[in-house]
Amino acid sequence: MSSGRLSGRTRTEHSGRGRINPVRALCLAGLVLAAGYARADEKDQPLVRAAYDACVPADISPVAVEKSAEDGVFVAPSGQRYLASELHVPDSQPGGTLSAAGLAAGVASGLEAVASGPENRWGLTPAWIVLRDGDAGELVQAVRLMEGAAVYAPDQEDSACAGLLRLAETAARREQRGLWGDKTAAPVYSAARPGQLEEETGNYVIVKGRVVSLGKTESTRYLNFGKYWKTDFTVTLKASDEAIFDAALGRSGWQVEKLAGKFVELRGFVQVRDGPHMALRHPEQLVVLEHPAFE
Questions:
Q1: pLDDT tens figures, 236-294
Q2: What is the pTM of this model?
Q3: Residue of 197, 249, 188 whose CA lies nearest to 221
Q4: Structural domains of the chain sorted by starting position, each given as residue range(s) with its CATH number in brackets
Q5: pLDDT tens, residue by residue, 224-238
Q6: Nearest-10 crossing angle of helices 40-55, 140-147
Q7: With DSSP H G I counted as helix, E B as strand and the rest as coil, what are the percentages for the chain, rounded to 5?
Q8: How far apart are CA 152 and CA 166, in angstroms?
């Protein structure tokens, strides 16, 4: 896995920074989306604030940053460069703004970065980027997702934080904001069309499809989306990661070994290995799109 932070952590209430329990925040955000408020600011702001509460560690000091000319990159006075984590911006999508049109009025006092992982090979430190307005904070990742300016690309976080970021993307998809309003820009593909997936080799995509069969070796678990493994779409995960995936899937009543015949959504980079292939490294890359049957 890419990080040791996939621990199912639960944030306690932290009244000093106005934080709320992440489970409560997730429920609140879901109710806000379901309510369908008429004004965008009433609909967007609670989810953006809830994502800040659930995702940004309260015990790590933020660093003041400024937006770089590079999309998704923010620079501190020290020269340290931070990357807005958990996001992927398709090549066809412009950089976008830092604030959705519907967010609360007022001028933000600045941008802050809170590191979420170690520096990568390109000298970028993955971080949560916060749009600060006094004591209140809005998570830029959630803003970008709600604008439809980026795709949720899980890399560090799980549990309530991941659920809120996924909700932010879901809101944009439902309302066809940004890239979701253009079918040629939205990176969503069918697992039943491996030829189209091969054309997206090297790109980050979302794939929907039914798992035809499962396979396993000592080191690898396979999700097969066709009968012909030489040409059809295949998804793999490390056997050593199966317990982590089972823990995440278990929240909705599933396990990896029970996914045959189930309709799922996956997200990640497409490569070619006997047909189009996606390697899963984070449990939030895999979601089952149906309810478990009662036994």
A1: 999 999 999 999 999 889 999 999 999 999 999 999 999 999 999 999 999 999 987 55
A2: 0.81
A3: 249
A4: 15-181 (2.40.50.90), 188-288 (2.40.50.140)
A5: 999 998 899 999 999
A6: 140
A7: 30, 25, 45
A8: 7
